[in-house]
Design brief:
The chain is mainly alpha-helical and about 140 residues long. It has a domain of about 60 residues: Helix Hairpins (Orthogonal Bundle). Helices cover about 35% and strands about 5% of the residues. A two-stranded antiparallel ribbon has the order 1-2. Helix 2 crosses helix 4 and helix 3 runs antiparallel to helix 4. The longest helix is centred in the last third of the chain and has 16 residues. The protein is flat and about 90 Å long. The model has no long low-confidence stretch (mean pLDDT about 80).
Length: about 140
Amino acid sequence: MNDAAVAAYQKDALTGHRPTWSMGVNSWTKSGRREEPKPHFDPRKAADPFGMFDGADWRQASERPAEPEGRMIRNAERKALDALNLDIHATAAEIKARFKELAKRLHPDANGGDRSREDKLREIIQAYNYLKSVGFC
């Protein structure tokens, strides 16, 4: 083998001796990216021998009512709300009321000096402070 043949073999060895294409050759045209044909599936026209979809309200995505956009809940916020035994749709007033209720119930002074629930009280306080810092209340 001459030097050119060795160099060509080494270059092909990088890709496992398989053919390769230049980047973008398959998906771009001179005018830009080709539009992919979007298949339209209409479940009303599909075969339904068992009648599973009878009465289903089939609408295209553009026809569906918009779902209310809410705030994205992070895992730490979920954990803090779980510590307070609240769901993710709790209002600021509910969060504050639950914190006060649990703080009064778990405080050592309310339990005759019993410090067994002190860890749970600390967890409640940290959860409430975290929710305050991220703007939940």
